[in-house]
Design brief:
Length: 338
């Protein structure tokens, strides 16, 4: 049987917010272990190649470490390098590619159960984000090998018919990149227009390409099924069959509610299925178990993000160390990005 080791705090999730939590905990004299079922900052690894963050470097910094970059808005690769350097500089205890399967014990004496063993701890911080679980369409053919919910880069689709499902930032950028890589992109949009939340420097570009007819869009339309060669949709004018060698179903993501339930964390009966936690302390229904970052918002995934979620680390660490609540900037207040 695997040896059981002990830490004061186990952080579940090795994204930027999880790393920030471990840093703040360690600085207060507590020992911490960071677990992740995937790689370090696994979600950022899954972002599109050369993706541009929507924020400037200083808003993505953790632990007070400067984020050096020559770009006004850092690229995905800048972020990967920065967070790796911070984790190593802070000498964080990382256990990557180790999936957590449950939580046992009682307040003050928990055991985090993983596929590789057990870790004793006094406190648990859950910073698992939302990017790992797509919002599925639940239509026939969605599990075909040429269908994905994650966009990476356009180059494999030159001279190919590609269907993009969705109308927000990911879909907009994918459609534009596919067009410029020589693909024939077609968008299927459930609503009547491209989302107003698409970034101000992306939306006009997309609207102009649509106006030119270079990107075709079916508004007020829904996907009925996906076949190996087509996407069958229902439009206001009736059914349509769209040729598709590849399909990007970029319909958003949500927290892993089954994982939260496996830990014993409940959710509220609201529209966002908000995980139960105290808004001031971030403590869940389980004493000594805390939430940090995007996962706090449930289905409202635009409520918390790196820029304000990183401050959760200071709130939680101060509480665990018995310190007064820190003075925090206004950015800690959630910002609604519809």
């Amino acid at each position: 049987m695997s040896e059981i080791i002990a830490f004061d705090v186990v952080v579940i999730g090795a994204g930027p917010v999880g790393l920030a939590c471990a840093i703040e905990v360690q600085r207060r004299g507590l020992t911490a272990c960071v677990l992740d079922k995937g790689a370090l900052v696994n979600s950022i690894i899954g972002y599109p190649t050369n993706m541009e963050f929507f924020s400037t470097p200083e808003l993505l910094e953790i632990g007070g470490h400067p984020f050096p970059t020559s770009h006004y808005k850092p690229l995905r690769e800048d972020g990967l390098d920065y967070y790796r350097r911070v984790a190593f500089t802070e000498n964080l205890h990382l256990r990557l590619y180790e999936r957590v399967t449950g939580l046992e014990g009682e307040p003050g004496s928990y055991q985090v159960v993983t596929e590789k063993g057990r870790i004793n701890c006094r406190y648990v911080i859950v910073a698992t984000g939302f990017y790992d679980v797509p919002n599925y369409l639940h239509v026939p053919g969605e599990d075909l090998p040429h269908v994905t919910h994650y966009y990476k880069e356009p180059y494999a689709h030159t001279d190919q018919d590609v269907v993009i499902i969705g109308a927000k930032n990911s879909s907009a950028k994918a459609a534009l990149q596919l067009l410029r890589a020589g693909a024939r992109p077609v968008m299927v949009v459930r609503g009547e227009a491209i989302s107003e939340s698409v970034k101000y420097w992306i939306r006009p570009d997309l609207l102009n390409r649509i106006k030119e007819g270079r990107i075709k869009v079916y508004f007020n339309s829904s996907v009925q099924r996906i076949t190996p060669e087509t996407v069958e949709i229902q439009t206001p004018a009736g059914p349509q069959s769209l040729p598709a060698s590849y399909v990007y179903a970029l319909t958003g993501y949500h927290p892993d509610f089954r994982f939260l339930a496996a830990l014993g964390i409940t959710c509220q009966p609201d529209a966002a299925q908000t995980p139960t936690h105290d808004a001031d302390t971030l403590e869940t229904n389980l004493p000594g178990v805390y939430l940090a970052g995007t996962v706090c918002g449930g289905l409202n995934t635009s409520r918390w993000f790196i820029e304000n979620g990183r401050y959760h680390a200071q709130v939680i660490a101060a509480r665990l160390a018995g310190e007064a609540a820190p003075e925090l900037p206004e950015v800690l207040q959630p910002v609604q990005l519809s």
